[in-house]
Amino acid sequence: MPGLLPRPLPGGRARAEGAGAGAAQPAGGDVTRAAGVRCRAGQAGSEGGESGTSSRGKMWLKPEEVLLKNALKLWVTQKSSGYFILQRRRGHGDGGGRFTGRLVGALDAVLDSNARVAPFRILLQVPGSQVYSAIACGELLNGSEVYWAIAIGATAEEINQHWEWLEQNLLHTLSVFDNKEDIVSFVKGKVKALIAEETSSKLAEQEEDPEKFREALVKFDSRFNFPEAEKLITYYSCCCWKGKVPRQGWLYLSINHLCFYSFFLGKELKLIIPWVEVQKLERTSNVFMTDTVRVTTGNKERDFSTFLNIAEAFRIMEQLADVTLRRLLDNEIFELDPGLQDPTQITKRDLEARAQNEFFRAFFRLPRKEKLHEVVDCSLWTPFSRCHTAGRMYTSDSYICFASKENGCCTVIIPLREVISIEKMEDTSLLPNPIIVSIRSKTAFQFIELKDRDTLVENLLQRLKEVNSGNLLHCNNLQNNNQNSLAFGSTCTLGDDEPVCLGTEASQGKERSECEKENNYLLNAEALRSDFHQSGMSGLDFGKSREQIKESLWDDHFVEYGRTVCMFRTEKIRKLVAMGIPESLRGKLWLLFSDAETDLASHPGYYVHLVEASMGKCCMATEEIERDLHRSLPEHPAFQSETGIAALRRVLTAYAHRNPKIGYCQSMNILTSVLLLYAKEEEAFWLLVAVCERMLPDYFNHRVIGAQVDQSVFEELIKEQLPELAEHMKDLTALASISLSWFLTLFLSIMPLESAVNVVDCFFYDGIKAIFQLGLAILEANAVDLCNSKDDGQALMILSRFLEHVKNEESPLPPIGNHHAFFSDDHEPSPVTEIANLIHDSYEKFGDHSVEQIEHMRYKHRIRVLQSHEDTTKQNVLRVVIPEVSILPEDLEELYDLFKREHLIRCYWESSRSAVSERHDPSRPYAEQYRIDAQQFASLYRLLSPWTCGEHTELLAHRTFRLLDENRDRLVEFKGLASCLDVMYNGEMNEKIKLLYKLHIPPALTENERDSQSPLQNPLLSTSRPLVIGKSNGDAVDYQKQLKQMLKDLAKEKDTKTEKELPKMSQREFIQFCKTLYSMFHEDPEENDLYQAIATVTTLLLQIGEVGQRSISLGSGSDEFTEDLQPSETSASDQNAVFTDTVKTPHKDSQPSPVTEGDWTVSFEHILASLLTEQSLVNFFEKPLELKPKLENAKLNQYSLRTNGMSCQSRSEHAKPSTQ
Questions:
Q1: For labelling, which of 2, 125, 253, 314 has a CA lying 20 to 30 Å from the CA of 564?
Q2: CB neighbours of 618 closer than 8 A, spacing ≥ 6?
């Protein structure tokens, strides 16, 4: 099984960065010219990080100038390309036939080892060489050609490795440069970077925190200025392609971002890509490079190439993207994986270990909680082949597993709870470093060739002790039982002739039966099949005989390979499974293959307790279960009686109680029904646990992410395995929607039951791989008809008819129709397909995909699926908001992206991860999935609001936030931000003034917002100034008359007004309102006119408020009021009526005024009418405003402003305590 799991890297530490290697500098500097090569292996290796070498002698060199004049006698050219030359030193490898070769060889032999010249080298040609075109294999013309030595090697094999790397990674790239000087600069920079990376890699193997990594961290901080919480994981030297031009630089991978920095030919390039915005991550190739990493975000693609180790770099990028997307976009997974909760603790070693854990659990289909501890090369004695089989041992918290290096040869899963002893044997030449693992079924496993055996055994014994102490009751029961009682009952594979039938431990069975007697809910002691399959079995002698043959084959297999969960799993057992498991063994083998047997034995009484705790309780899950109970295999007699329905209810309800995160999902009822047919009730429960939590991860949750990921993987497999069908059906989403039920119900809902159970057999043995390959076999069998189909509906009918006619002629069961099938078309007879043949074809034609390949595809497609959900959320939010605002849809879409990014930027570096969980919940309504707090809102306000008020902007932003936070949860949704900006940019003047007015009364304005520098202290706002202003042309405007008319109009308007009135504004609030207006006019082209106008309006409003205050204090009929308002003749009754209505007696539908009688107040109507009297103010609020330029600027500056702000905040918090 080569390549199953990546071997652990030594130390798993990050690569370090060499000084000066990140930026390629123009040719020049300290250059040496010599009549021959001036770089000897010893010198190059002692230049302190200027060369990279291995223990065998191959190395990259710090580019050193070489003059080839008169050098032909020493070197022979063996290979040449457009830019590189590979040379061999005379006297090496040619048998020394010539005198020159013998002379040079003798000279090299007598030299000191430090001065000895490496026999092979690679040269880069310098631009301007006079004899460039005359370079030929074997000879060079004399002249003044100048080259650069970039690599040396001790053997032809070593130097050829460098040559191949140059051909694959650099040769095609260099053709895009316009001049040769750029080529030399680029190659020199790349070679220096490779040297630094190789050197630092060796340092990382020896040092826990190498100095080089600290230097790289300093550069990362200075170049990107992230807060301290943005942890750097690792970095690589590579090229980033900009169009057809590569930019050599450094790729930094941190917990939340992919960053690239380059300084090339005097130009600096910085690139920041948040992992959460990555939509596709893949290894691909372009016209210039054979192997690149392509990162796709939105509509942009970025290619990175020329990595020293592209496989490692891509693996780390894949892990980081997966971790971040799950943590920030998929809360269901985030909560299930506690290792991701603190991203600041993630390291490169952790990511590599996580990748190994994922593959380990997927390959052996173990619980998520299992943590891989050791991966050790070894050999296992396999009795069936009478030899030791080479492979690897994997040890975790509760398991010892083995997988042969030859794929499919042998795998073994040993739960530690089954282990009796682990012993070291005598080390001999035939059995080096052996250990014996003995299990309860009288079987022993012999492992040899184990490195560091003592430490391994010590660790295993410690974990064995922990497992046994965790199940003390189980251990005591074992001690009290007869020594011959077997844990799972097995036939001994090492010579035990006593047959023991499959079954659970006797003591546990007794304990469970006692619990069941005490329980009010009587559990089924047998599988439902045994009760309901007896009828109709007569007359099926042929089926019985086939069953007896299968049972005999399985019995023979058990004798040789074992019959417990620890059995040897080989290609032979896979063939037996593909033929169909006998009815009598099916349920027990499902338990063994899925390892549900271990869960069952480890949790005696657990299911009974769940049933007691869950039955009788009503919730959404139980209501859905009740609705689906009678839809579960209604054609089967087992579920036409209360016995089967009650058992199904108990299992589904108990699981919903065990795992409320999943609860109950449709299709679980169909699967559980079939499990109950072949397993006891408690066994069926643990089989359901194994399927939902291990074998089909993330299938049964709110968004069925796992099923959608596998649908996307299935599409890729169709393109790969059935290209003609994929070419015909351009849009494979139709096939994906048809096949979704195949994955969710394991074909149980669309095949006859007697055929579908054979599919379930393969699934429990091979996992999801069996469903993928069977799906491909079905499509291939119908490929011709599908290619001729006219639409999706016809394709659906073709597949449905085919699946309805998949029969199992060998089944002893009476045929049972499928109630869940899509169609039942009796008009067109369809050929019958035998399920055994279909399964056989699936293994033969499509069974070559390994678990590792499938898991890698799942990583890639999980990104696409999660981003697809994000797009759906976005479109649904926009669909709701677009009709309610006047902002253009494309601008609103960009605004949503900024809003979401603002939320995520804050999530990256929050100390409390619970905040992320609260704010992004995929199960919430679309509009509530992303919300921002006051600080995030203020950042967006500064970037987008047209009402810039200098230092006053921050205060205004927080008031706007409080106004929009209607439910007082300190969070604002996107709709609130969009509606607010819509008023600012597209609203009428009265709407804008109303918004400003609301921002200066509660709840937007709070009691603690007091400003000592009140603008009312300015003489410009004195109420003693006359209300007659002289204009430049000498005319005068009497504002007393305007005020009189304004108040009359307001009084008339209020009589017909039905809209709910705004509360009155107090003097303190009015002061803040005036200050905001003054701040908004600052640096406006009409600043002076606006200041003059607002001074006039403010004075007018102050007098209105004072007059209203006196009218309340002195009574509505006061003569003083009339005299103060105007010296000329005015009807006092009109004035009194106005103020009585506007100040003292609010509208019956209005909110009660927060001010008391006698206080200074002014209403929104007063302010609006006053502002309308000044044309310059009207022009200011009605001038057209464009949102698009603000959006473009925000996209460019949002990240830098937020990171700079948070970085400064982080540093200030470390420097001194908070003053707030």
A1: 2
A2: none
Could you write out the three-class secondary structure of 520-550? CCCCCCCCHHHHHCCCCCCCCHHHHHHHHHH
DSSP E strands, 776-889:
806-807, 833-834
- Supply the pLDDT for residue 607: 94
Q: Can you list the pairs that 157-163 forms with residues at least 24 positions away whose Cβ atoms lie under 8 Å?
A: 158/56, 158/57, 158/58, 158/120, 159/58, 159/86, 159/120, 159/121, 159/122, 160/86, 161/58, 162/58, 162/60, 162/122, 163/79, 163/84, 163/86, 163/122
Please list the alpha-helical segments (H only) found in 394-527: 453-470, 472-480, 506-518
420-446 pLDDT, tens digit each: 999 999 988 889 999 999 999 889 999
Q: Which residues of the chain have pLDDT under 50?
A: 1-57, 96-97, 106-115, 129-144, 203-208, 336, 473-475, 477-520, 534-539, 819-826, 912-917, 1010-1036, 1056-1058, 1116-1157, 1210-1220
Q: Which two tokens mark 5?
A: 């799991």
* Residue 51, CA atoms < 13 Å, CB-side half-sphere: 24
User: How far is the C-alpha of 218 from the C-alpha of 238, rounded, in Å?
Assistant: 19
Other beta carbons less than 10 A from residue 883's beta carbon: 6
Q: Which two tokens stand for residue 676?
A: 């109950």
Position 752 scores a pLDDT of 92
d(CA 693, CA 366): 9
Token pair, residue 822, equals 């899509």
> Which helix or strand (DSSP H or E) is residue 390 part of?
strand 387-396
Q: Which structure tokens are listed for 877?
A: 């939010």
**Which tokens hold the place of 645?**
């329905």
Cα(78)–Cα(87) distance, integer angstroms: 5
pLDDT at site 1112: 63
- 0.70 surpassed by pTM: yes
Residue pointed to by tokens 């253009």: 888
CA angle 1059, 1063, 1069 (to 5 degrees): 140
Q: Rounded to 5 degrees, what are φ and ψ at 254?
A: -115, 180
According to DSSP H, which parts of 178-267 are helical?
Answer: 180-206, 211-224
Instruction: Give me the half-sphere count of Cα atoms (radius 13 Å) on the Cβ side of residue 467.
Output: 24
Distance (Å, rounded) from C-alpha 645 to C-alpha 643? 6
- Residue 907 has a pLDDT of 82
Rounded distance, CA 297 to CA 310, Å? 20
Residue-level pLDDT at 69: 55
pLDDT at residue 284, as a whole number: 87
- Residue 417: enclosing H or E segment and its boundaries? none
Positive or negative torsion for Cα 347, 352, 357, 358? positive
Residue 815 token pair: 């045929």
Q: In a 10 Å sphere around its CB, with 0-12 CB exposed, 13-18 middle and 19+ buried, how is residue 131 labelled?
A: middle
Largest CA distance in the chain: 131
Q: For residue 420, give the DSSP letter.
A: E
DSSP 8-state class, residue 1018: S
Helices (H), 909-969: 914-919, 934-944, 952-964
CB-based contact 502:631 (threshold 8 Å): no
* CA 899/CA 918 separation, integer angstroms: 17
pLDDT of residue 1119: 43
Q: Determine the residue type at 374.
A: E
- Residue closest to 9 by CA, chosen among 304, 459, 350: 350
Other CB atoms within 10 A of residue 531 CB: 16
Task: Tell me how crowded residue 967 is: count the other CB atoms within 10 A of its CB.
Answer: 8
Mind listing the pLDDT tens digit for each residue in 328-360?
A: 887 665 554 566 667 777 888 888 888 889 899
Task: In whole angstroms, give the CA distance from residue 1069 to residue 1075.
Answer: 10
Task: Tell me the C-alpha distance between 46 and 424, whole Å.
Answer: 46
CA distance 939 to 975: 17
Query: What mean pLDDT value characterizes the chain?
Result: 77
The CA-atom distances, in angstroms, between 303 and each of 17, 238, 243, 286, 290 are 21, 10, 9, 9, 12
What tokens does 742 get?
Answer: 């195949």
